[in-house]
Amino acid sequence: MNISVEQNVIDWRAAQAAVTAAVDKAEQSDIKINVAVVDSGGNLAAFLRMPGAFLHSIDIAIDKAYTSASFGFPTSQWQEIFADEEMLKLGMPNRDRLVVFGGGLPLTIENMHLGGIGVSGGSADQDADCAQAGIDAVRSLLEKQASNAGRSAGMSN
After folding, report:
1. Of all helices (H) and strands (E), which one includes residue 157?
2. Model confidence pLDDT, tens digit, residues 5-21
3. How buried is residue 61: exposed, middle or buried, by Cβ count under 10 Å (0-12/13-18/19+)?
4. Share in percent of the chain as helix, strand, coil (round to 5)
5. SS3 136
6. In a 3-state reduction of DSSP, which class is residue 71?
7. Are the C-beta atoms of 67 and 104 separated by less than 8 Å?
8. Which tens digits make up the pLDDT trace of 44-56?
């Protein structure tokens, strides 16, 4: 019997790349955001606040990341869930740290659930676009790592 299990968590370098890419996207959209990445256990792995971003959005960004990491789906999906579940609609939004509007996305790369990313400061769609830029940056890092590993393997033959 195993008394422990391994858990995939996002590396700090990947978390930092994600928040940086989200901020870069926000600058292109001319918005000020707070962006957070949490690991698969909900622990804060990286955070960036753009000067001028709403102070109250700090916790919202962190909680969006936490919500998407803990449930494994985008925070925007809660609206669909609530449409058919009146009791959930009444009870769930009162839960601490649960955010039920867009801007939080799970960080799941190649079937590995690594955590979540949350963005707050723009509209729900703008926040989600910035979060997606963060995920794309992590995917790019993984592809680069795989490419480098392939080149290294080719050199040893």
Report:
1. none
2. 888 889 999 999 999 99
3. buried
4. 55, 15, 30
5. helix
6. helix
7. yes
8. 999 999 999 999 9
For 140, phi then psi, to 5°, come to -60, -40
Complete edge-to-edge strand list for the sheet that includes strand 34-39: 44-49, 34-39, 112-120, 104-109
Are the beta carbons of 78 and 92 closer than 8 angstroms? Answer: yes
Do 54 and 32 touch, CB atoms closer than 8 A? yes
End-to-end CA distance of the chain: 41
Least Cα distance to 36 among 53, 54, 22 occurs for 22
Per-residue pLDDT band at 153 (split at 50, 70, 90):
low
Reference 72, options 113, 100, 35; nearest CA is 113
Report residue 155's pLDDT band, with 50, 70 and 90 as the boundaries: low
Distances in Å between the Cα of 45 and the Cα atoms of 55, 58, 151 are 19, 14, 30
- Fold of the domain spanning 12-155: Beta-Lactamase (3.30.450)
